[in-house]
Sequence to fold (558 residues):
Amino acid sequence: MSVKSDIEIAREAKMKPIAEIGKKIGVPADALLNYGPTKAKVSFDFINSVKANKSGKLILVTAINPTPAGEGKTTTTVGLGDGLNRIGKKAMSCLREPSLGPCFGVKGGAAGGGYAQVVPMEDINLHFTGDFHAITSAHNLLAALLDNHIYWGNALGIDQRRIAWRRVMDMNDRALRSIVNSLGGVANGFPREDGFDITVASEIMAIFCLATDLKDLEKRIGNIVVGYTRDRKPVLAKQLKGDGAMTVLLKDALMPNLVQTLENNPVFIHGGPFANIAHGCNSVLATQTALKLCDYVVTEAGFGADLGAEKFFDIKCRKAGLTPSATVIVATIRALKMHGGVAKDDLKTENVAAIEKGCDNLKRHIENVRKFGVQPVVAINKFITDTDAEVAAVKKAAEEMGAKAFLCTHWADGGAGIEDLARHVVELCDKGGDAFKPLYPDDMPLRDKVKKIATDIYHAADISCDASIEARFKELQEAGYGHFPVCMAKTQYSFSTNPNARGAPSGHIVPVRELRLSAGAEFIVVVTGDIMTMPGLPRVPSADVIRLNDQGQIEGLF
Fold:
């Protein structure tokens, strides 16, 4: 019997009108701005009306360090929301919006998988409600205003060698990484080096996902540093008078998007910052609203827990005043074998010894999550090749760390395959435990914050900074940005900065290559390696197989 693809399963979904989904969580039909029958935005008037409600429990889904074998974090986030509803709890999930770049590049879609999906899957992956287009437009409006200001006399004295604002588009296009703009003569301005990033790497995206309302959004946009004068003074977006018009472009986009799972449970999908150059979480506004509407809210953070969970706790929760009650760490037998040294072609063969070795990675993540005062539980996302002995080895490893591990079959069975995990998550939430706390206080110096993450979370021996980095730390500290959290840009594949160092490496040095100020998002990006902010397409992109069939249906979104 052949296994149905995600898109075949999604196509067979029996979706309910979005008003029925809203009704489940107390959102009246007149508070929904419909984008067709199965997706809608939730109005600001309604969001403001529920702010006094008691907040539900927040559950983070994170993972071990990713491998080519796959982990299934989004699928687990969706499945757990369904599982909580199946055991009688009022629950919903909050996810990031997929980017068109990865959809047509490698992934081919990102709305969960199997029978733990969010629908309408094609719409979510392709344009959705236009949020990313609005963010792209707002970002590029600021770029246009910047070059226009220089063209008409440069009253602010911007140094064209120190412009910090590039352009963006929501597509993988390596040809645009580094360009020269304003060619073609005097009428087109002053030629200079420029470049494009993918929209999810835009500071506007990070701001969008941290803003609490339109006023906060406009304030943050106004504080963006677009460049510097010749005497190194920052030039802000509000000095270019871009903050008002950019906020106008984003006014509808900032409303959270309501959709449903295959089991007709509510989901907010809103925002999608890069999990590397930014904090990799869905919008604060969606998460806070969900907590006012449900007793349990499941959300995810990008990449493994060393990046995603750390940023979720230290940036999103700190800035938004959120208090997570439990953390689910997703692992697969296949990925743990790879961390134990098994080649991808050999993953189908039982190898308990490799599992035991690979579980060093899992144990490290369990240990790290506890440093934030949050109780962890392990979800083993089942693959058909997993053996009982291998699953038993993972459960034993988790128990050695004082945590439980549950075999979850939500990919094949939907919410019914994750009920045991759902019950345990409820126990953790209701039991409470250690109070949540970020890893470092606001007033710790920026350099010390970076070292704290490197040594406590990555188990590094130290960080290394050359003289220019040390000077930049001092400059940012003295300029009044020392209270910002730090956003680590590091490979997702390892605790170290070497993507090939799987398992749980210790004692390495984390080199700090660059510090980037995100004054609107209110964090400092700490680059520790070669971070790609404009990906390229692979040799055989997913776009090669995405098409309309004879029935007018989309095929090829995995």
Notes: The two ends are 19 Å apart (CA to CA). The mean pLDDT is 95. The longest strand covers residues 324-331.
